[in-house]
Specification:
Blueprint (H helix, E strand, L loop, with lengths): L4 E5 L7 H15 L4 E5 L14 H5 L5 H6 L5 H11 L2 E7 L7 H8 L2 H9 L12 E10 L7 H11 L4 E11 L11 H15 L9
Parallel strand pairs: 1-2, 1-3, 3-4, 4-5
Helix pairs in contact: 1-8
This protein binds flavin mononucleotide.
Length: 211
């Protein structure tokens, strides 16, 4: 499998703490010989948000998809979708904005709607058994915390990503108490450990060979 693990940086900010965390996570996983690919919502081209037009209700496809696929390389949600279909495991590193997802990340999540249609209306993409779902980890980035927490971010992620057959298995609180300090990355080791634990428990052992 080319990329058993994908790390998705889900911040609208190209060079913020979220991306720094994602970079460091990738580096630390590579040290453990994990094949990992880094994706960034700011780097896939224009990610058009769902407008609830209803086009997918009949076709099972997003009205924006044809344009995204016509570009070279494939851009926007379609590019991310292709990568996520291939991966075995996903780590989403997402900042919390007022307890929920930032608009760019929510735009990405809402583009799962055609898969909801395929599953529940057209029944062309039936749900998978629990054991066949792919593991998902959410590393929540924040600065200073908020009295309302981040449960809406977790719920939106869990609900939308299920449409691509991901199962949220761990949420790591990476909220920094010091607003300005982007070098201190709480939750980095816990996220790395959560990935390694899931990999050890789910991926088949390499076939033994005789010298
Ligand atoms: C509009 C907005 C709302 C935010 N709301 C919260 C919040 O509810 N809880 C929190 O801990 N941090 C909150 N923050 C801080 C960010 O989550 C934090 O700075 C995070 O690192 C931003 O990601 P970035 O470094 O990729 O820009 C908020 C920031 C913005 C801009």
């Amino acid at each position: 499998m080319e990329f058993p693990v994908t790390v998705l940086s889900a911040s609208p900010h190209k060079n913020g703490a979220t991306r720094t965390f994602a970079n460091r996570l990738v580096e630390s996983l590579e040290v453990h010989d994990v094949h990992v690919r880094l994706l960034d919502l700011t780097e896939v081209g224009r990610l058009r948000a769902c407008v609830g037009c209803g086009y997918c209700n009949k076709s099972g496809k997003c009205i924006f998809e044809a344009n995204e696929r016509a570009s070279e390389p494939v851009s926007g949600f379609s590019a991310l979708y292709d990568a996520l279909e291939q991966t075995q495991m996903l780590v989403i590193v997402a900042p919390v904005y007022f307890a929920g997802p930032p608009a760019l990340y929510k735009a990405f999540l809402d583009r799962m709607q055609p898969f909801w249609v395929q599953r529940y209306m057209l029944q062309t993409r039936p749900p998978l058994l629990h054991s066949q779902r792919k593991p998902l980890i959410l590393a929540v980035q924040g600065g200073g915390g908020d009295p309302f927490g981040y449960e809406p971010l977790v719920t939106c992620t869990k609900s939308a990503m299920r449409m691509l057959n991901f199962e949220l298995q761990a949420v790591v609180d990476c909220i920094r108490q010091d607003h300005g300090d982007q070098e201190n990355l709480p939750g980095l080791l816990q996220t790395q450990q959560a990935v390694l634990d899931i990999l050890n428990s789910t991926l088949p052992a390499e076939e033994e060979t005789y010298e």
